[in-house]
Amino acid sequence: MKIKNVFFYLLLCIMLSGCIESTALLGPSITAGATGNVQSAGLSYGTNVYIKKKTGKTTAQNLRGFLKKYIKIKKEELGLSNKVL
Q1: Are 75 and 85 in contact (CB under 8 A)?
Q2: How many CB atoms lie within 10 A of CB 71?
Q3: How far apart are CA 6 and CA 76, in angstroms?
Q4: Among 15-19, 48-52, 53-57, 70-74, which is the least confidently predicted range?
Q5: pTM (2 decimals)?
Q6: How many other β-carbons are positioned within 10 Å of the β-carbon of residue 51?
Q7: Which range in 2-6, 12-16, 22-26, 53-57 is most confidently predicted, on average pLDDT?
Q8: How far apart are CA 73 and CA 85, in angstroms?
Q9: Rg of the chain's alpha carbons, rounded to an integer?
Q10: Under 8 Å CB-to-CB from 45, ≥6 apart: which residues?
Q11: How high is the pLDDT of residue 31?
């Protein structure tokens, strides 16, 4: 019986391995279901898609680039080397 379960779950994982990218669409639907605020979830998803189309980067990648520039400017203002921070 255990061998059948292991085989079933292994087969299920192999068959569903291509579905990982489509789970990104679940984020807004989970937010809408949990909070009941469909407008907020839709606006969040829409702005993320718009930013991705305009810049070619995700929101997290844009934020990371902004923070790198900010930290570099602050280091120069304080006269710190790159090894300190």
Answers
A1: yes
A2: 13
A3: 57
A4: 15-19
A5: 0.43
A6: 15
A7: 53-57
A8: 12
A9: 21
A10: 27, 28
A11: 60
**Per-residue tokens: 39:** 């407008």
Amino acid of residue 63: L
Q: Measuring CA to CA, how many Å separate 82 from each of 61, 64, 70, 78?
A: 21, 17, 13, 11
- Helix, coil or strand: residue 37: coil
The predicted-structure confidence for 22-68, as pLDDT tens digits, reads as follows 555 566 666 666 666 677 777 778 888 888 899 898 888 888 988 98
What pLDDT does residue 45 have? 81
Contact indicator for 81, 74 with CB cutoff of 8 Å: no
What tokens does 56 get? 């070619």
* 3-class DSSP state of 68: helix
